[in-house]
Sequence to fold (369 residues):
Amino acid sequence: MIPVDVDPFRDSALPELDAVRSGEELDWEVIAEYLRQKLPPEIDTSGSFRVLQFPNGSANLTYMIAFGSHELVFRRPPFGSLAPGAHDMRREYKVLSRLWQHFALAPRAYVFCDDHAVAGADFLVMKRCRGEVVRGVIPSTMRRHADVGQRIGFALVDAMARFHRVEPGGSRLDDLGRPEGFVMRQLQGWKKRWDLVADAQYTSSMTDIFDELVATMPSPQRVSLVHNDLKLDNCMFDPDDPDRVVAIFDWDMTTLGDPLIDLGTLLNYWPDPKDDSSIVGLAHAGMERMGLASRREVIARYGELSGMDVSHADWYAAFARWKTATVVQQLHHRWAVGDSTDERMATVAEGIGGLIGGAEMFLTADKSG
Fold:
């Protein structure tokens, strides 16, 4: 048997990677043997197996695995109890095993496994892409470019508009969801998720925002594929060309519905010079100094590229920020009950008050037009 080498050191050539976090180890020997049987023949699995972790995500567990020099990405849900419908590896595999042929920014998925004897949960293995992930600082490889912050921001908006033009039927994803009533189901589903993990000090505000979102919900304009978690650090950029997105990640919530849900998600994570510091969202610290376009410029550019009416973009941003408050409470709850060992989750709920304030801000902006 070829030995498994779980690399305990950060690889200096791979800045997005680190040693596997304590408590998030898997039986890599079993996984390696399984993948040698299941990966397509064009992937050489004869080399020694090694593992590192992508440490910056906060939900699904994502690892870089390699057979010799051939690198892949392994994804599975976090440990412990999961919210209904969350962390759907089967859905992500379905999307990525088909979409890559029609949308080049979707990495190809190679293997899906629902035998929990292998890794303790459903998992998938997909293509490893290369590029820069941008969080709160422009990477050193990209600082030589003029107007780099604005350019990467607009590149993401352009990629989102292209994604929303993909025909679901042509990519064999027209059975991915029920677009009729999609937004209302999203509202009701996330309200149920909040109720499962609610913090009493925020419940009144969260319920008031939910009621206002229901009362003012815009009518959908068209149906498209919806990623459901589009944000800057779910993308990878070409360091030699800041106008080009290399790949988009985290497809486990992809469905059919109103594409403006993705615009709202992007706006939720997008800092703006006019923001009150007390109601900021979960944008990475430093993003406000990267030279990104304003939210109004993002909305205008998406409207121009998509041909859609974006006059209620703030409603979608309000929904996204309210939903994010629920996600944050879920993450903290998992840590509080011992399902997560990620110490970042111990204090993450401290931001919920600001998220609630941000959702209220967006709703006010939507009313004022």
User: Anything to note?
Assistant: The radius of gyration is 20 Å. The CA atoms of residues 164 and 319 lie 19 Å apart. The longest strand covers residues 241-248.
